[in-house]
Amino acid sequence: MAKKVHAPETLQKGDALPPDVQALVNEMAKRKNGVSSARRSPYATLWTIILSIISVVYLVPIILVFINSFKKKIFINKNPFSLPNGDSFSSISNYTEGVEKIGFFSALQNSAIITVGSVIVIILCTSMCGWYITRVNSFFTKCLYYLCVFSMIVPFQMVMYTLAKTADRLKLNSPFTIIVVYLGFGAGLAVFMFCGFAKSIPIEIEEAAMIDGCNPIQTYFKVVMPILRPTCISVAILEAMWIWNDYLLPSLVLDTTKYKTVPIAIQYLKGGYGAVDMGSMMAMLVLAIVPIIIFYLVCQKYIIEGVVSGAVKG
Asked: Which partner from 39, 41, 66, 260 sits 20 to 30 angstroms from 92, CA to CA?
């Protein structure tokens, strides 16, 4: 039979617990710690070490690129793993030469226009689509949902030649018009995530907004969109990382004589007969990855929250 614990009716902040109550609290804490220890995998420490080593392996190429961006070209080829010293250190000459050779700031502007514009359009259109699919239960919405999901498994190589021809005929070969193409390729994952999260939104909230006089558009922007914020941020991060680093799609669709994105511009540092300006290329790679790394670090806490909410809820 459990031991009865007598405690005073009121306790003030800072008061010590009675001895019998404190003993009960300590006992419960020990039991909780014992259960946590029992559930912990016996190989947890081993897995921690293995995953830490894998993380370091993934970081090594980035560190090497950064180190070599400050070395002279001849030393990069001879000893790429050494740190810059008095003979090999090139100051910032690799950066200045690379910026001048490829027109980096023009390419950066094109990449920013494409990435920001595409992410905004994808979030706006697919969040509306996901909300519509979850609220309108019809044959059409079911077909629309499965078409979006099916588009996620279609390899890009199957449609790239047809896409390039169609985009050329429709004049989608500028940084502003290629956004339409990215909307088509990015809609599958985004609609899937928004549908999963929208199912968890109580419909009573939307009904209350409509009773207060909101039309569907006002209900979406004033009620639904704020609730979808975690998923919006997750979609923005995933789509931005893909679009910023994408090389194949812009190279097929854009008029590269007028418009170059950062990945395309960096490729112009490769000369004829396999000659590569390694110093400038390393420097431009650093400048290319810095913006997206900063964006990811700022928003990374929302990734797991949005992905889990979109894939599990409902």
From this structure: 260
